[in-house]
Write a structure and sequence with these properties.
Layout: H1 42-49, E1 57-71, E2 74-81, E3 90-93, E4 97-104, E5 113-115, E6 139-145, E7 150-155, E8 168-173, E9 183-192, H2 200-207, E10 234-236, E11 239-241, E12 244-245, E13 250-251, E14 259-262, E15 265-266, E16 271-274, E17 280-287, E18 294-298, E19 303-308, E20 311-318, E21 320-323, E22 328-334, E23 339-346, E24 352-358, E25 378-379, E26 399-406, E27 415-416, E28 431-433, E29 438-445, E30 451-455, E31 460-462, E32 468-469, E33 471-474, E34 479-485, E35 491-496, H3 499-504, E36 507-512
Parallel strand pairs: 1-4, 3-8, 9-17, 16-24, 21-25, 26-29, 28-36
Antiparallel strand pairs: 1-2, 4-6, 5-7, 7-8, 9-14, 10-11, 12-13, 14-15, 17-22, 18-21, 18-23, 19-20, 19-22, 23-24, 26-27, 29-34, 30-33, 30-35, 31-32, 31-34, 35-36
Length: 514
Amino acid sequence: MPGISRRAFVGGGTALGGAVLLGACSGGGGEPRSSLITPDDARVGAVENGRAATGREHEVTLTAAPTTLDLAGTAVSTWAYGTSVPGDELRVSAGDTVVAELVNDLPDPTSVHWHGPALRNDMDGVPGLTQDAVAPGERFTYRFVAANPGTHWFHPHVGTQLDRGLYVPFVVEDPDEPLSYDEEWVIVLDDWLDGVDGTPDDVLDELLQGMGHGMDGGTGHGGHGSGDDGEGPMRMGSALMGATSDHLGGDAGDVHYPEYLVNGRPAGDPRTFEAAPGTRVRVRFVNAGGDTAFRVALGGHTMTVTHTDGYPVEHHEADALLIGMGERFDVLLTLADGAFPLVALAEGKGRSAFAVVRTGGGLAPGADARPEELEGRVILATDLTADEGARLPEAVPHVEHRIELTGGMTHFDWGLNGRRYDPENPTGNAFRVAEGQRVRLTLTNGTGMWHPMHLHGHHFQVGDDGPRKDTVILLPGQTLACDFDADNPGLWMTHCHNVYHGEAGMMGVVGYSV
């Protein structure tokens, strides 16, 4: 594949260090890529052909293009799939074949990464690893069997593009759905700065200077951010200082965002979800943010958590959910009579995304509402237990790779095992696995900040009986054992889903040996 610039894909890094991923039990050592199964290997196609397929095809055109978004009366320029943010929901049934043509009408190269489904490696959408970036004016067709039911989404894997408006919820329905409910809502949460406070690329350039350079970056963005009570984290350019959260173990985020959105709308122009009293609703939450965990609650209601990242869990009652970037939660709600605030608190940042749920008359709650549920039973995915049918069979791992998350804000040198990802040698120190193995990734967070770690192409189990996931919050000082079966050959990214941490270098590759 051709050489690519630092902004070629999320986690492209600054190319200041070598490849990362020093495997504890196997891998490492700079083995050549030729000894790894590549995306065009016949084995990739053979595994795809073995997936249970319905024979139905679902065709869609995804046009990535500049557009204008209305944020409470303010017109902002951004990039999106079509003219809306999020883009139009894509919904198929498990086993259907997705045929998605990406049309690139952007000024920059782009791609589509399908976040959640375990799909064929050559359709994973990572330029420099699984495909060439789609150049401006060009097209590329993604074709794959959507094998895994659940709440998924898709976005680019190029530079900071996912922190613009380029994201779409992707629901794969279970033909044997066991849950009973009357209605279904898909709610996408996002932090927003594009077109309001520069662009994500501007923010990245500023952050890469590190705290020692004042974080001003010549943007003219200065002053202090503030919470709703007039206090809050300090703003230095586009960076935040003092954004803290006990739930996240300390530092809550790096980036100041002027807006937070529910399904593309800010608190000043909220969405309203309407239903009759007593309606049982399945809500599918997606956090499409770049740097923000959301603590989500619906005033006057308790949620029953049923799924995370598409996999069922033992049902768990919650007053609020803490959702990291890239994570998804499904919940059931039985709606009371009235008008209620749906609040997604930008954890540690003092502001919120906001919407209204209305089942009857009365005044709508204001955007400053803070339902008591936000301080009740706050559930992280790691508090959950996998449903018995979703658990991996017991097995001793054949291989373990120990990955330490490293770096910090001072130099903005995020990496894995002390090294930044090197896009010029992406597989030089790949975590090597073999098809048929039970693999353990032992993740240790050696930094002072939380990280949502994502693995492409697979779903790991957290601990002995924790949830099956593809993205998991790792708190400062925490170690998690994440096990998966190596049943999807190819080259797969594992990275922090904070877009700025990934782009700075907190990214690596899990590669299947030939």
